[in-house]
Amino acid sequence: MLHYLEKEAHKIAETGEAPRIIIENVSRRKFLGGALAASGFVLAVRVPDAAALEPLKPYPTGGEGMPHGYGKASDPHVYVAIDKDGAVTIVTHRAEMGTGVRTSLPMIIADEMEADWSQVKIVQAPGDEPLYGNQDTDGSRSMRHFIQPMRECGAAMRQMLETAAAAKWGVDVALCRAKAHHVVLLDKAKKETDKKLGFGELAEAAMALPVPARDTLLFKTPDEFTLMRKGEVKITDLRDITMGKAIYGADVRLPGMKFAAMARPDVLGGKIKSYDATAAKAVPGVEGIYEIEGVYDVPRKFGQLGGIAVVANTTFAAIQGRDALQIEWDDGPNASYETVAYFKAMSETAAKPGKVIRKQGDFDKAFEGAKSTFTGEYHMQHLVQAPMEPLVCVAQIKDGKAEVWAPVQSPYGAREDIAKVLKLPIENVTVHVTLLGGGFGRKSKWDFMIEAALISEKMGGAPVLLQWTREDDTRHAFYHTVSVERIDMAFDGGGKVTGFRHRTVAPSILSTFAPDSGYQFPIEYGMGFVNTPFDVPNILCENGQAMAHTRIGWYRSVSNIPRLFAVQSAVCEAAHQLGKDPKEFLLELIGPDRTIDPKASGYPEDFWNYGDPYPEFPIETARLKNVVRLAAEKAGWGKELPKGQGLGIAAHRAWGTYVATVVHTEIKEDGTITVPHAVTALDCGFYVNPERIRSQIEGAAVMGMSHALYSGITFKNGAVEQSNFSDYNIATMRNFPKKVDVHIVEPKPGQHACGIGEPGLPPFAPALANAIFAATGKRLRNMPMGEKVV
Amino acid sequence: MATLTVNGESRTFDGDPGTPLLWYLRDVAGLTGTKYGCGQGVCGACTIHLDGVAVRACITTIDMAEGKSVTTIEGLSTDGEHAVQKAWRELSVPQCGFCQAGQIMQAASLLAKNNAPSDQDIVEDMSGNLCRCGCYQRIHAAVRLAAGGV
Fold it and tell me: Which of B48, B53, B20, B54 is nearest to B34 (CA)?
């Protein structure tokens, strides 16, 4: 999610300053009312709510501040092509890793331009941000940042087609209306006539027209949508996936292509002391052994770990050859990294005052004067993204040109880095994006692509497919940070919370990009730490130092996972201590309906609001409370449950989206934790594809169950102890949240499209922990919590 | 020299008889629908049929397939209209889709031997096929839906 972070990290490292909240002037984009907004016909049939009649009012997002911003995304010539036979081709520039973006973004253009979806073909853009706009498919940003350019592009195309029809007919453009892949001629009463021209017939003339200026674009109102909001469009690659025809990274085949596997150091920063490749060379099919230099200087960023590549005529031979290498490593200083000792040290740090990041009121005074207090400490192990498709890349570096194919979330960043490493001009580097067999943040980091490029270069330009094994994927990731989160609360005699302190201790992602200070930075602080929206007079957020000894990266939902686990578990624990209902207590803590004022609440000056301008994407407590109430109601909060069963709740606002989850757990006789039912209510503002929103939330529940109960990465002697799905466990069909219900709140006017890929994940684990407590009276504070309550 | 049938076609392979079918299918036969996920038979992404029964191609070697009939996702149906494939589309099961060929092959094998599986039968039979996107709810429902049509 944070490819752009490199620049920010440098800035912070060099000047100590982080970027300020971006507040942009909206007025430069003038709003013009939609042409059909007040049609009497519509009003006569029903009284639609205000949101259904509101066309798009342009607003600023953080998208403009991302590398290459929107590029030329609003230009239909970049994103749309229409054949003479009417076939429409729409480009998708974001990577498909399962969120449905390859369907949902093109759907916006198609809807806005009135294309018939059955005549739309989708093509995947290569890495080219100056043209397509930012392509970092992470940070739950695709819809949030690109809904406007996509709508602008579609509206411009529609208006160009209408203008072309007007010219052909010699009539005023106001009498031409695009509808269902045609432009229909209207009579003077604006009623449709039988006269129409197909998009194919108009294509050539329409494409030759100038693109209408942004402030002349007329957008559809939601009641005019044909694709958006309907949830009826099947995902683009559905048929190919069911037939084994969909092309993922390892499915790329080039003439003469070889296969490679690599041995890498078990300990970060490890270097080869000596090696013997005799046995590897003896493996039938092995054709070449190449030493690949690593990036050892700190910060390593996405630099390759270095090691030895074995090239062969099949992947199997390459892996066998790799396994036969005899390598002696010089582990270096990170060999001391050991999980048990590290937790002990983090816990000790969390018991002491840290660097103050948010201060509102006087927590210490509230704590000293408290009638009673609460303290809870919550631990989480490292996680590995573990997409089902391990990392893989095909590269051919030949004649001063590099052509690379990969399942990559950030193709342009990869392209820039490959150009730098190979010393090629960027125009000589092409990065093709295949389908991603899952990403979850790992495939934002292109170390594996640099490796493949270096191997092909060493081979003298032959095409090569570098396959990471599952063990490689598990042991050489950019891990979700390990963390200790400590919550302290002060209560008065009436059971009111007078003070709230959150201390976070966790190695920072920043350590990957800048010299490690051991402290976190605004992007991490902005994820469920400084922005906990509680109505408590005295709030203190502190960060304790924790140095990184492995590569720390982002994993779906990032810091929100440990933070929300801590905060929402603590809320439930405190409710129990005070004899209150956890849901009511949560609502009480959130407090009255209001828009949080970051300044008055003591937020840091450099408060990171998921990269978006705060006035456009503010924290609104009414929306948070609404999803809490909705989830609780739909889950039957308060109902009588048999012994061994319980409900738990957790809620937050992240990536602009408000999410509440209620988990219903049933503890089996042998202590096994099961989840027969979970309910998630979410308010993501303007939404496009409810069907894919549901699938994301269903999936988030499964992934949430995985890290809540099963998954954890631990280190010993600096090396990862786990290797494969045999010891890095995830939820299976034997034990997963059996039924996940998703309730999407209808947006109100002015509520912008927000994130979906990530925000559904963090509430699951604390909701489950709270449910387990309700069912058994046992409080589990360390993730993974284990498959059984003992 | 090993002889085997792949999707109805007779083939020979004179390489290492210990080569897992997964890598033979992908790198030699060019059938990339069968996916590599773990290499240990613990994730199910490479599930194929050996004489009609689901096996993990990553731990099934060429010599184990000698004289036998291998079916991959490409050979499950000629037109993609196997009841399981149709059910998968009907319920929009996939997210990233990477594990789905294996899931579909496992489900087709289950339904071939048991056309009216109980919920528990489905859980037991499908539990070795991992999905990191978390499509289990829909996978379970799609197997149930397909059961009517196999």
Answer: B48
Provide the shortest C-alpha distance from residue B44 to chain A (in Å): 10
For residue B13, the distance in angstroms to the closest alpha carbon of chain A comes to 13
Confidence check: pLDDT of A8 > 90: no
User: Are B56 and B104 within one domain?
Assistant: no
CB pairs under 8 A between A and B: 188
**Whether residues B100 and B125 fall in one domain:** yes
* Structural domains of chain B, count: 2
Q: Is A95 within 8 Å of chain B by CB?
A: no
Round to whole Å and give the CA distance between A426 and B50. 48
Cα–Cα distance for residue pair A31/A58, rounded to 1 Å: 7
Strand partners, A92: A124
Out of B35, B53, B75, a domain closes at B75
Q: How far apart are CA B107 and CA B122, in angstroms?
A: 8
| Contacts of A256 by beta carbon, 8 Å cutoff, 6+ apart | A462, A463
Q: Is B90 on the interface with A (CB under 8 A)?
A: no
pLDDT band with cut points at 50, 70 and 90 for residue A7: low
Cβ of A246 within 8 Å of Cβ of B97? The answer is: yes
Structural domain harbouring B109: 83-147
Read off the pLDDT of residues B95-135 as tens digits, 9 standing for 90 and up. Answer: 999 999 999 999 999 999 999 999 999 999 999 999 999 99
Collapsed DSSP state (helix, strand, coil) of residue A715: strand
Q: Can you give the CATH number for the domain in which B7 is found? A: 3.10.20.30
Chain B interface includes A754 (CB < 8 A): no
What local confidence, expressed as pLDDT, does residue A49 receive?
61
Contact (CB<8Å) A698/B134: yes
**CA nearest neighbour of A450 among A259, A248, A301:** A301
Give chain A's domains with CATH numbers. Answer: 25-59+66-240 (3.30.365.10), 249-333+391-467 (3.30.365.10), 339-384+478-783 (3.30.365.10)
Cross-chain residue pair B92–A234, CB shorter than 8 Å: yes
d(CA A466, CA A312): 10
- As a whole number of Å, the CA-based R_g of chain B is 15
Q: Residue B15 carries which DSSP code?
A: S
Are B89 and B33 within one domain?
no
Cα within 13 Å of Cα(A300), Cβ side: 24
**b/e A434-455 (16+ beta carbons within 10 angstroms → b):** bbbbbbbbbbbbbbbbbbbbbb
Span A525-560, pLDDT tens digits: 999 999 999 999 999 999 999 999 999 999 999 999
Q: Are residues B112 and B48 in the same domain?
A: no
Probe site for chain B from A242, A434, A675 (most B CB atoms < 10 A):
A242
Residues B47 and B100 placed together within one structural domain of the fold = no
ipTM topping 0.90 = yes
The alpha-carbon gap from A330 to the nearest alpha carbon of chain B, in Å, equals 28
List of chain B residues with pLDDT < 50:
none
The CATH number covering residue B114 comes to: 1.10.150.120
The letter for the amino acid at A681 is: A
Same domain, residue pair B92 and B108: yes
- The answer to whether A420 and A137 have CB atoms below 8 angstroms apart is no
Interface check for A149 against chain B (CB to CB < 8 A): the answer is: no
SS3 A374: strand
Residues B65, B87: one domain? no
The answer on B28 and B69 residing in a single domain is: yes
| Chain A contact for B80 (CB, 8 A cutoff) | yes
Distances (CA, A) of A148 to A6, A151, A172, B134: 26, 5, 28, 30
Whether A222 and chain B come into contact, CB under 8 Å, resolves to no
Q: Which of B29, B46, B75 is the last residue of a domain?
A: B75
A41 pLDDT more than 70: no
Residue A53 confidence (pLDDT): 73
Interchain contact, B97 vs A389, CB within 8 Å: no
